[in-house]
Design brief:
Organism: Bacillus safensis
CATH topology of the largest domain: Rhomboid-like fold
Number of helices: 23
Number of domains: 3
Helix content: 55-70%
Order of helices and strands: HEEEHEEEHHHHHHHHHHHHHHHHHHHHH
Number of strands: 6
Structural class: alpha/beta
GO cellular component, one term: membrane
GO biological process, one term: proteolysis
Strand order of the largest sheet: 1-2-3-4-6-5
CATH class of the largest domain: Mainly Alpha
Pfam families: Rhomboid, TPR_19
CATH superfamily of the largest domain: Rhomboid-like
Keywords: Hydrolase, Membrane, Protease, TPR repeat, Transmembrane, Transmembrane helix
Oligomer: single chain
Strand content: 5-15%
């Protein structure tokens, strides 16, 4: 009796230490359920210590377990469940039972595979047990043989206490996800949808003028003092696909962060991350931008903080999934054009440091929180300083202003506004383009051609630049060069009316 009892509890303890998840508290009659590993071919493993004398006892137990597992299957809404039942018994039944041993017994959507493990079977080694569990075991049979009844009972108490401690640890882990309900998550989703509808009704969510009017990130306007554009972009989206992707991400990741950190902390993390995403985009991306991606990456950053503060909990609950999500999103960002990676990374950093500053509930550490807040202010302040003092930003602002002056037919002022930038080797293609057009309007054709050529060197496939340079050559009477440039422009945009009219004009002039 002592040997089989000791072996039972030694096997249970080793499976526990191997990381097998117990899914039901132990019963008084020495019954343990484990969740089976994925590669085992089973869904559940039942280790059961009870002596059996007759075949009918096995049959009756199979029926009972089939009923119990079917109830569990319905509660879990599973299509089917397969239970491996390992029963430890001192002796085998006195009547015929071998036809049941190891043979799957299926009834409806539940399969029970009963395996009887007697003291004689396990007396020499645990190979039979290893075969069914599909794992190696370090259970020492010789040590088990030496155990007294008191030793076996103490081993049982130790294992049950370990299970009890494990269950308490799970309760503490569950408590981490119960610090708040996703109230703000759903509210933010509603705001995103409402703002998208307003954009669509006001000119379209992909219309630059409409986006700018509603608060999209516009570097030129930020430089002119519209600082609020660092916050408003997180509520706007460019196109339906953009909205759907970010709404799903907010629903899944944002809800988890709000449950872990609580609603107040979540809102701080979300808003500050969104602002940090806008700051990073302001520094590294001159294009108009909008979207909640920075704020959502901030939520991912907050979960990464959880990985540092509670590594075991993080990787046991969501770690792998979160890391995969971050890598996939960054991978998409670096391989697909038009995605604001700076905004994503800025949000990730902002979310991480905000989480470091606000901490998890019941983790109040004033000194560390103060240091994290100072780091957050320093990083944000440094980003803003860099953005407002960046040569690229100044050039972008000057280009935008010159474009407005050109539209107002103030050509001389447009040229003057860009004069200090266009002679630099890092002058943007757009600045060179507007400068060239302004000079052409003032009759400086050679100078205009020179700077349009420089613009095309930086952006050789832009059909508008090719067209404008073709026009200048027509003005100078150099139709051969004009034709060549126009052919390239038409290759990019073959249906453009202006290009086609110029082509017709050149052809007519050549036949005169």
């Amino acid at each position: 009796m002592n040997v089989i009892d000791s072996l039972f509890w030694r096997v249970v303890d080793e499976l526990r230490q191997k990381g097998y998840e117990m899914i039901q508290s132990p019963y008084p009659e020495d019954e343990i359920f484990f969740e089976a590993p994925r590669n085992s071919g089973y869904d559940l493993i039942r280790l059961y210590r009870k002596d059996v004398n007759f075949r009918q006892e096995i049959v009756r137990d199979i029926k009972e377990q089939t009923y119990r597992i079917n109830q569990l299957r319905e509660a879990m809404r599973k299509r089917s469940l397969h239970l491996l039942q390992l029963q430890f018994t001192t002796d085998v039944p006195v009547d015929d039972w071998e036809d049941l041993n190891g043979q799957p017994q299926k009834e409806n959507k539940v399969t029970v595979t009963p395996v009887l493990l007697s003291a004689d079977t396990l007396q020499n080694d645990v190979n039979e047990l290893q075969k069914w569990l599909n794992t190696s075991l370090a259970v020492d049979v010789e040590e088990a043989k030496k155990d007294t009844a008191e030793n076996a009972m103490q081993l049982k108490r130790n294992v049950l206490q370990a299970f009890d401690d494990q269950e308490k640890q799970r309760e503490r882990e569950r408590a981490v996800f119960q610090n708040g309900r996703p109230i703000f998550t759903y509210l933010l989703i509603a705001v995103q949808v409402v703002m998208f509808l307003l954009l669509e009704l006001s000119g379209g969510s992909t219309n630059t003028a409409t986006l700018t009017a509603f608060g999209a990130k516009n570097n030129v306007l930020i430089l002119e003092g519209e600082w609020w554009r660092l916050m408003t972009p997180m509520f706007l989206h460019i196109g339906l696909t953009h909205l759907l992707f970010n709404t799903f991400a907010l629903w899944s990741v944002g809800a988890a962060v709000e449950r872990i950190y609580g609603s107040g902390r979540f809102l701080l993390i979300y808003l500050i991350s969104g602002i940090f995403g806008s700051i990073a985009s302001f520094v590294f991306n001159t294009a108009i931008a909008a979207g909640a991606s920075g704020a959502i990456f901030g939520c991912l950053g907050a979960l990464l903080y959880l990985a540092i503060s509670n590594r075991k909990l993080f990787f046991r609950t969501m770690g792998t999934n979160i890391i995969v999500i971050i890598l996939i999103n960054l991978g998409i960002g670096f391989t697909v054009s038009g995605i604001d990676n700076a905004g994503h990374l800025g949000g990730l950093v902002g979310g991480f440091f905000t989480a470091l500053a606000v901490r998890l509930p019941k983790q109040i550490q004033p000194v560390k929180m103060l240091l994290a807040s100072a780091a957050l202010l320093f990083i944000g302040g440094f980003g803003l300083y860099t953005g407002f003092h960046s040569d690229d930003q100044k050039q972008a602002a000057a280009t935008s202003e010159a474009a407005s002056l050109f539209d107002e037919k103030k050509y001389s002022e447009a040229s003057e506004r860009l004069e200090e930038y266009v002679h630099d080797k890092d002058a943007s293609a757009e600045a060179l383009h507007i400068y060239a057009l302004s000079e052409a309007q003032q009759g400086q054709l050679d100078k205009a051609i020179q700077f349009l050529q420089k613009s095309l060197e930086k952006d050789p496939d832009d059909p508008n630049k090719l067209y404008h340079l073709s026009l200048l050559y027509v003005e100078k009477g150099e139709t051969a060069k004009a034709e060549d440039l126009l052919a390239k422009a038409l290759k990019q945009d073959p249906q453009n009316d202006q290009f086609l009219k110029l082509k017709q004009y050149i052809e007519n002039s050549q036949t005169r």
